UniProtKB/TrEMBL annotation:
Key words of the record: Membrane, Transmembrane, Transmembrane helix
Domain Major facilitator superfamily (MFS) profile: 203-391
Native species: Salinicola acroporae
Lineage, uppermost ranks: Bacteria, Pseudomonadati, Pseudomonadota, Gammaproteobacteria, Oceanospirillales
InterPro entries: MFS, MFS_dom, MFS_trans_sf
PROSITE patterns cross-referenced by the UniProt entry: MFS
Keyword Transmembrane: yes
Official protein name in the record: MFS transporter
Length: 391
C-alpha cells in the first residue's frame, strides 16, 4: 500500500478523534451555554451544516487546486473555528460557539475527501482496501477522542475549555502531516470525454442508489448517536459512561474497516449492505430494552457496525459509477447529499429526544432502515458498474 494511503489514514485518525470529542462535548456545552435542552444539539447541527456547506466548494477546489491545497485550506478553517470556540467558552456566548463549530464543520467537510484521495493514490486492485484502510484510522480515534474528552474536560477553570485546546493540537498535527504528504490530483478525463451535468449523473441508477444508501445510513447513525449523550444523561448515567459508550460505538464504526474492503470484494455490495442494515435494525431494537449502560453500549456498538457495513460499501460502489473526469463533481454531490440529511438529523436529535423519548425516537428510524435495505437489494441489480469507463 502506498505511503500516502498510510499518511491519509493517520490524518483520518486525527480528524475523527476531534470529531468524537465534539460529539461527546458539544451537546453538553450547548445545554450549558443555551440553558435549554431543546437547543443542546444546535452546535452539532451547525458543525454538520458547515460540513455540508464545504462539500461542493471542496469538490470545486479539488478540481482546480488539487487535493493537497484543498486539505490544507480546510485544516486552517478548523483551527480558526477552534479559536472561536475558545473565545465563546470564555465569554459564555452560545451564538459564538455555534459559529465556531460551523467553521470546524467546514474543515471536516474537506477532510471527508481523504477516503477518495486514497483511491487516487492506490492501484486499481487496491482501491477498496485503500478506502477501508483510511477509514480504519478511526480505530485510533475510538480511544484517543474519548480519552482526550475525559482528561481535558476540567483542565481549566472554564468547563470544556481544555477539550478545545486539545482539539487544536490534533488539527495542528494534521496540518503538519498534510504539508509533508504527496497527494495525487484526481484522475483527469479521457480525451474527447466531457463530464456530465449533475442532473444527468443523478439519472444513473447505480450512482443514485449508492448516494441514497450512503446518505440514509449516515443520517440514521448520526441521529441516534447524537441523541445518545442526552438520553444517557436523562437515564442517570455519568459523563464517563457516556464517553465509554461513544468510544465503543466509534470502535465499531471503524475497526471492521480493516476487513470491510476485502469482504466487499469477495461478497459484493448487496450482501454487505444487507448485513449492515440488519445490524442497524438490531441496534434500534436495543432501545426498547431498559436503559442500562449495557443496552446503550450494545446498541451503539451495533449502530457503528451497521454504519460501517453500509456506508463504506456504498462509497466504494460510488467510485464505479462515474467517468474519470467526473470524480470531484460526483464525490462532492455525494457528500453534499450525505451531510445535508445528516445535518438535519443532528438538528432534530435534541428536540426529538426531549419530546418523544429515546425509545420512540429509535422506533421512528425503523422505516428508514427498511428503505435502506430495499434500495441496496433492488437498485444494485439494474446495471453493471462503469469501471471500464473509468480506466
Amino acid at each position: 500500500m502506498p505511503l500516502t494511503v498510510w499518511g491519509l489514514a493517520l490524518c483520518q485518525a486525527l480528524l475523527v478523534s476531534g470529531n468524537i470529542l465534539l460529539i461527546a462535548v458539544s451537546p453538553l456545552v450547548g445545554a450549558q451555554l443555551s440553558g435549554d435542552a431543546d437547543w443542546s444539539t444546535l452546535p452539532v447541527a451547525t458543525q454538520l451544516l458547515g460540513l455540508t456547506a464545504a462539500t461542493l466548494p471542496s469538490g470545486w477546489l479539488t478540481a482546480r487546486l488539487g487535493r493537497k491545497r484543498t486539505f490544507l485550506i480546510g485544516n486552517a478553517a478548523g483551527l480558526i473555528g477552534i479559536a472561536i470556540c475558545l473565545l465563546a467558552l470564555k465569554g459564555a456566548a452560545f451564538p459564538l460557539f455555534t459559529l465556531g463549530t460551523f467553521a470546524i464543520g467546514m474543515s471536516i467537510g474537506a477532510g471527508m475527501l481523504y477516503r477518495f484521495a486514497a483511491i487516487d493514490a492506490a492501484s486499481q486492485s487496491q482501491r477498496d482496501r485503500a478506502l477501508s484502510l483510511v477509514m480504519a484510522g478511526g480505530v485510533i480515534a475510538a480511544f484517543a477522542g474519548p480519552w482526550l474528552a475525559r482528561y481535558t474536560q476540567h483542565a481549566f477553570a472554564t468547563p470544556f475549555l481544555g477539550c478545545f485546546v486539545g482539539l487544536a493540537g490534533l488539527y495542528a498535527l494534521a496540518l503538519l502531516l498534510l504539508s509533508r504528504l504527496e497527494l495525487p490530483s484526481p484522475r483527469g478525463a479521457v480525451d474527447g470525454e466531457s463530464p456530465r451535468r449533475p442532473g444527468q449523473l443523478l439519472r444513473e441508477p447505480q450512482l443514485l442508489a449508492a448516494v441514497v444508501i450512503a446518505t440514509l445510513s449516515y443520517a440514521i447513525m448520526n441521529l441516534a448517536m447524537t441523541a445518545t449523550p442526552l438520553a444517557m444523561t436523562h437515564a442517570g448515567h455519568g459523563f464517563a459512561d457516556v464517553t465509554n459508550v461513544i468510544q465503543w460505538h466509534i470502535l465499531a464504526m471503524f475497526a471492521p474497516s480493516f476487513v470491510t474492503g476485502d469482504l466487499t470484494r469477495r461478497f459484493g455490495y448487496r450482501p454487505m449492505i444487507a448485513a449492515g442494515s440488519l445490524a442497524l435494525l438490531a441496534s434500534l431494537l436495543c432501545a426498547l430494552l431498559p436503559t442500562t449502560f449495557w443496552t446503550f453500549a450494545i446498541g451503539l456498538f451495533l449502530l457503528g457496525l451497521g454504519w460501517n457495513f453500509t456506508f463504506l460499501p456504498a462509497s466504494a460502489w460510488l467510485t464505479t459509477t462515474y467517468r474519470p473526469g467526473e470524480a470531484p463533481r460526483v464525490q462532492a454531490i455525494n457528500d453534499c447529499a450525505v451531510f445535508s440529511l445528516t445535518t438535519l438529523s443532528a438538528l432534530l436529535a435534541g428536540p426529538l429526544n426531549a419530546w418523544l423519548g429515546w425509545q420512540t425516537l429509535n422506533l421512528l428510524l425503523l422505516p428508514l432502515v427498511m428503505v435502506l435495505m430495499v434500495v441496496g437489494l433492488g437498485m444494485s441489480r439494474l446495471q453493471r458498474p462503469l469501471i471500464a469507463k473509468r480506466d
